[in-house]
């Protein structure tokens, strides 16, 4: 088996994906399958941290469009990411692997506060670390959170697990002629306004020299394949 390309990564998971075939909520078989993939990746000898979106429960932008202020809507979305982290943490531990949720908010009855030292400690102990609560600030996406946390904890790459197998020139589900890219620079991704990740995340990755690998989470084992350098995705770097 090929050695992993990276030794410490942040994996960004879509909250919507946790809903499975449902339009809302948490689909337990989907959570269990993702937990299996994360544990298999961890067993490669990779230190794994995870950032999850909250769109399967609350999307701050959508809530604010219905009359709630944007800061309040985004805070609701950040709390939704905590629910997803706790669900995934429980699934990982139920399968016999150690995990720990760290929160961007002070909520001692629920989880420990994120600090760089806490993240380093738990990763070194061999735990899968789940990073909830977004950045702790409104107006920032969990894509940006993933890049920020990766830079903070010294990760070597951000793995963006999504519902398409890379970055395309347009939505491949709507435009059959959309071109798929094997590799892009951060600047090209920003200039192209590709919607797979927001521009702030790409800009921060460029500033911190962090590669982002965009790939599909649909196939079991896809995280491990990316880590071994055999997976199918788009590398955004340089």
List the helices and strands and how they pair.
Elements: E1 8-13, H1 28-42, E2 47-52, H2 60-64, H3 70-94, E3 99-103, E4 112-113, H4 116-124, E5 128-132, H5 142-153, E6 157-162, E7 167-168, E8 180-181, E9 183-184, H6 186-192, H7 199-207, E10 212-216, H8 222-228, E11 233-236
Parallel strand pairs: 1-2, 1-6, 2-5, 3-4, 3-5, 6-10, 9-11
Antiparallel strand pairs: 7-8, 10-11
Helix pairs in contact: 1-3, 1-8, 5-7, 6-7
Question: Could you please describe the fold and organization of this structure?
Answer:
The protein has a single domain, classed as Acetylglutamate kinase-like (Carbamate kinase), CATH 3.40.1160.10. α1 crosses α3, α1 runs parallel beside α8 and α5 packs parallel to α7. It contains eight helices and eleven strands. With 238 residues, the protein is of the alpha/beta class. The strands form two sheets. A nine-stranded mixed β-sheet has the order 4-3-5-2-1-6-10-11-9, with helices on both faces. Strands 7-8 form a two-stranded antiparallel sheet.
């Amino acid at each position: 088996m090929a050695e992993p390309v990276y030794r410490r990564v942040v994996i960004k998971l879509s909250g919507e994906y946790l809903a499975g075939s449902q339009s809302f909520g948490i689909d337990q078989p989907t959570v269990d399958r993702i937990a299996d993939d994360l544990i298999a990746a961890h067993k490669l000898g990779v230190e794994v941290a995870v950032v999850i979106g909250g769109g399967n429960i609350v999307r701050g932008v959508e809530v604010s469009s219905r009359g709630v202020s944007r800061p309040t809507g985004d805070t609701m979305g950040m709390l939704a990411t905590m629910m997803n982290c706790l669900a995934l943490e429980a699934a990982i531990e139920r399968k016999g692997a150690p995990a720990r949720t760290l929160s961007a908010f002070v909520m001692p009855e629920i989880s420990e506060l994120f600090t760089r030292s806490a993240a380093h400690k738990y990763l070194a102990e061999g735990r899968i670390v789940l990073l909830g609560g977004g950045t702790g600030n409104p107006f920032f996406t969990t894509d940006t959170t993933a890049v920020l946390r990766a830079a903070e904890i010294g990760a070597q790459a951000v793995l963006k697990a999504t519902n398409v197998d890379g970055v395309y020139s347009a939505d491949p589900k709507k435009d059959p002629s959309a071109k798929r890219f094997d590799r892009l620079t951060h600047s090209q991704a920003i200039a192209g306004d590709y919607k797979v990740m927001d521009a702030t995340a790409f800009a921060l990755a460029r500033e911190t020299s962090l590669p982002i690998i965009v790939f599909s989470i649909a196939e079991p084992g896809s995280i491990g394949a990316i880590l071994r350098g055999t997976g199918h995705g788009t590398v955004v770097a340089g």
